[in-house]
């Protein structure tokens, strides 16, 4: 009798402890919201983005071939270094952007754990990029929820080059 009671109690505790009530419902993906444009009249026909020094299969972050005046993408920052290099091929012209940042791991919740929180502190880029505007230097898991006209950085390509 004790064996059956023990088995029933064990089954109840197992079912209760395996419930999905403690799932992670917050975002732990930290991506920098970035917009790209050339000027108000010239379209970006193709845009390919990959990490600096990473042109292998599966390393491409963006590969689109549709024409628009402005493109907007969520891009990752480095977890292991204090800078991130991005190579951008817009309309067949290649440029490189280096983003200097600091990163700390922040607690999201008990069920989700930790996520990276970044602060952008500087930029360096090649001559095919006209300018880069930092709109919001703080990149965190909530950054991907930004509205359509809001981003962390805006990249303006040099219209004479592109």
Per-chain topology:
Elements: H1 2-17, E1 32-37, E2 47-51, E3 60-64, E4 70-75, E5 83-90, E6 93-109, E7 113-125, E8 129-134, E9 138-139, E10 153-157
Parallel strand pairs: 1-10
Antiparallel strand pairs: 1-4, 2-3, 2-5, 5-6, 6-7, 7-9, 8-10
Question: Keyphrases for this structure?
Answer:
mainly beta, four-stranded mixed sheet, elongated, single chain, 45% strand, 162 residues
Structure description:
This protein has one helix at residues 2-17, and strands spanning 32-37, 47-51, 60-64, 70-75, 83-90, 93-109, 113-125, 129-134, 138-139, 153-157. The chain is mainly beta and 162 residues long. It has one domain. The strands form 2 sheets. Strands 3-2-5-6-7-9 form a 6-stranded antiparallel β-sheet, with no helix packed on it. A 4-stranded mixed β-sheet has the order 4-1-10-8, with no helix packed on it. A hairpin with an 8-residue loop joins strand 2 (47-51) and strand 3. The longest helix is centred in the first third of the chain and has 16 residues, at 2-17. The chain starts with a helix and ends in a 5-residue tail after the last strand. The mean pLDDT is 86.
Overall, the morphology is: elongated
What's the β-strand tally? Answer: 10
Largest sheet: 6 strands, antiparallel
Radius of gyration over all CA atoms, rounded: 22 Å
For the largest beta sheet, what order do the strands appear in spatially?
3-2-5-6-7-9
Strand content: over 45%
N-to-C span: 82 Å
Structural class: mainly beta
Low-confidence stretches: none
Tell me which oligomeric state these chains represent.
single chain
How are helices and strands ordered from N to C? HEEEEEEEEEE
**Helicity, in percent?**
under 10%
Helix segment count?
Answer: 1
Overall mean pLDDT: 86
Count of structural domains: 1
């Amino acid at each position: 009798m004790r064996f059956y009671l023990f088995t029933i109690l064990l089954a109840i505790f197992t079912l209760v402890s395996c419930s999905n009530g403690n799932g992670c419902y917050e975002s732990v993906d930290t991506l920098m919201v970035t917009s790209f444009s050339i000027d108000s009249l010239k379209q970006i026909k193709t845009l390919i983005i990959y990490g600096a020094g990473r042109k292998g299969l599966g390393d491409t972050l963006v590969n689109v071939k549709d024409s628009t005046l402005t493109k907007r993408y969520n891009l990752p920052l480095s977890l292991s270094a204090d800078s991130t290099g991005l190579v951008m091929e817009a309309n067949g012209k290649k440029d490189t952007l280096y983003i200097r940042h600091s990163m700390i791991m922040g607690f999201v919740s008990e069920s989700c754990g930790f996520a990276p929180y970044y602060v952008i502190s500087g930029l360096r880029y090649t001559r095919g990029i006209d300018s880069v505007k930092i709109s919001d230097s703080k990149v965190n898991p909530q950054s991907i929820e930004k509205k359509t006209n809001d981003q962390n950085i805006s990249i303006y390509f040099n219209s004479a080059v592109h």
